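User: I'm writing a tutorial on reading structure tokens. Could you give me a worked example: one chain, its sequence, then its tokens, then a sentence or two explaining what the tokens reveal?
Assistant: Sure. Here is the example chain.
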Amino acid sequence: MHKKRLFILLFCFVSSAGTLFAQTGSDSLNLTDSAGILISSINIVGNRHTKTFILLREIHFKAGDRIKKGELAANFIRARNQVYNTNLFTEVTVDSVVQPDMSLAVNFTVREKWYVFPTPQFQLADRSFNEWIKTYNADLRRVVYGVKFVHYNFSGRRDQLRFFLLNGYARNISASYSNPYSNRALTEGYGVSAGFTQNREIGYRTSYKNRLQLYRAEGFVRNSFGMSAAYTRRKGFFKSSSFSTGLTYINIDEKIISPAFNPGYFNDNKKYQLFPDFGFGINYVNTDNNNYPQKGLIYGAGISKRGLGFTGGINNTTLAASFSKFITHKKNWFSNVRASGLLKVPFNQAYINLAGVGLRGLEYYVISGVANTTLKYTLSKKLVAFNLPIPFKIKTIPFIPFRIYAKTYSDLGFTYATDQSKTMLNNRLLYTGGFGLDIVTLYDIVLKLEYSFNQLGEKGLFLHGNGGF
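And here are its predicted structure tokens:
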């Protein structure tokens, strides 16, 4: 009897740093498949600031549930991923302990991120780092500087508070607050924001060669103020819906809407516009890591309405949809396919309403119209993963992780434009390709080094970044 109990205890805890979960030796538990294994309790350790009920909301099984012995591992992995995808933790591990009655106590251990970031800002007025270097020779006068304060978990309910105070080539004073779990059932949320911006230059038209033409003058040529509110609903774990509304006021230099520049900028002869925006969207997100997914599915669709009318001026209705599939192959190979589409009606749109298409390898070009579609494929291979120790002690950051992937990719895209905005890259199939490296580090920040080429015979090295909170 002693040997049998020892065998059960040894099998009940198997952990792995890669998957960050532990599995009970359920084959040794004296329970039938039909009865399942009883989850007697769920315990969470390490959440000093985050409310425990926020994490329990993301775990799809509860104390008192029974799970079939062959499904324990998959359920632990899924629960671990759902807690990690709150974006509140750098580490999440799951283990279980067999109780005297042969039930399981499931334990989640989390390491919280550093949530408060009062950080200095150094931003570029240009669309990309490459454009700043190549087109403007890294001109420091085109820099936007200031301070950003963000609390990513303000009250411990995954709510975010943001303040921006920026100056330089552009100005931005803005604030926002969002709370995804505002009701008792933790199924509804809201967000509010307001901001004032000023710009010393704006793009007023796209040239035939798909270059953005910029208007500059003494002082600020564009002043705008906006406010918005949003309501979100998420009953389950993967599906959500949202409704948003906003009000925007824009005032520009009068020369911009003159015949010498672009009378179609607003589709109106007034230099200022006051208009509302309304939007509704649905989303499905089920991946292993929302910041850098390697397995899972994301899709969504939405409709938005700008203005109170249906034709003329800045009035438009937009339909949009996207789909992404992420696949894990053997031996650390991964692939993903992403497709998207967008349509704006009526086709006679104000310039500020035109939607652009983004393809890797065409970063220097502005390709916008009233409809577009893209298809992107990426194949990657994980080369190495390691942790870099920190020489001084920080509880929230004991080390800096690095994962490096080699990748190759190919993009297809098409943008439809009416006669008044037709350019050399509109109304034709576009294709690009390339290869590069993805470096994933602390807080899932991703640094992308991409050597891309396009159908115009151009090629070059591009630097991109994303991720974090």
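What the tokens reveal: The first strand starts at residue 14 and ends at 16. The chain is about 10% helix and 50% strand.
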